[in-house]
Amino acid sequence: MSCKSSFEVSSRKLSLSDKEADNSAKLLMARIQEIPKMGYAFGHQDATAYGMGWKNDGSLYKSDVAEVSGDFPGIYGFEIGHIELGHQQNLDSVNFDLMTKLIQKAHKTGGIVTISWHPNNPVTKKSAWDPSPAVSEILEGGILHPKYQAWIARVADFMNGLKTKKGKPIPIVFRPFHEMNGSWFWWGHGNCTPEEFQLLWQQTYALLTNTYKVHNLLYCYSSDAVKNREEYLRFYPGDAYVDILGMDLYHKESTEAYEELLQENLSLLATIGKEKGKPYAMTEGGLNRVTVENWWTDVLDKNIADKGIAWALFWRNAWPNHYFGPFKGQKSSENFRKFKALDHVLFLSEVKKIR
Questions:
Q1: How far is CA 11 from CA 25, 133, 345, in A?
Q2: Which helix (H) or strand (E) is 152 found in, with range?
Q3: How many C-beta atoms surround the C-beta of residue 254 within 10 A?
Q4: How far is CA 270 from CA 56, 116, 247, 301, 332, in A?
Q5: For 239-249, how does the pLDDT look when each residue is reduced to its tens digit (9 = 90+)?
Q6: Domain range for residue 209?
Q7: What is the CATH number of the domain that holds 211?
Q8: Does 265 have pLDDT greater than 60?
Q9: I want to staple 346 with a disulfide (CB 3.0 to 4.6 A). Which of 29, 41, 159, 209 is the partner?
Q10: Structural domains of the chain, count
Q11: What does the alpha-carbon distance between residue 322 and residue 290 come to, in Å, rounded to a whole number?
Q12: Helix, strand and coil percent figures for the chain, each rounded to 5
């Protein structure tokens, strides 16, 4: 108990972007800073919401990777796209009430939760992948700024509603407006200027923290793969608005090209993270359908284990031609168990001890 108390006391001295951050957020940051001393944590998007051939209806608690490895992820990814519209389900048909319960369970068992947000295009009302320019319209002074304020109010209600059974806030790593250096989202490169993106981030932060009093968030800035430092920092809103740095790094081309991508991008991220004194992570990634049998140990781990990342999160197991984690019978399952057995790869049983 004395060790835990000491850890909690030291966490309260941390300086986060939100100067009124709840102690739970400070404790989460202290945990995240501790992880790279031991290795890196394994994460999976929607791990307990659905998987190959099943969907959580509220009556079960399982995970594809747990069925393969015997342990749950240390990092749980969730998505709140469509909450801005007042819908009951997110864009991947996960009910928000169920999501709240899954987040509560993940937190209670010692996991860390990160939330992404793919908001619809506010101008066209189409999906986040509609690149029609929209950012200038929702900034202060823009014709759709009141609409955006209402969107953020709904995000705030959800975040403020994430509490333990004792009513304490559940801390979240919030990762909005990701992959901004790509052109596929309405907030991305070519669809708004870097200055407009920075204002969008800063104004979103101000609405959440100042207007709607959300104080359980750590803010994560995460790009897609970059060619250089300038590209990574082009849209960066400033140290005062960011707690964690990230990159989304997917295996899209050859294995050799992906290994090079991991080496170059994570080395750059490590340099920037150390300069700024901020933890950093591979915030999304993976190989669709994990088609390389020994991918987890020989492609992934060999190229990320020494980079100092806090975690690596793999995308969701959605349907038979779109999955990034193993499941029973999947060709990389045996290799995944070897990956899980590595001392420096941390699943829930190891991550929960850091508190």
A1: 9, 41, 24
A2: helix 145-160
A3: 9
A4: 37, 22, 11, 16, 28
A5: 999 999 999 99
A6: 2-351
A7: 3.20.20.80
A8: yes
A9: 41
A10: 1
A11: 10
A12: 40, 15, 45
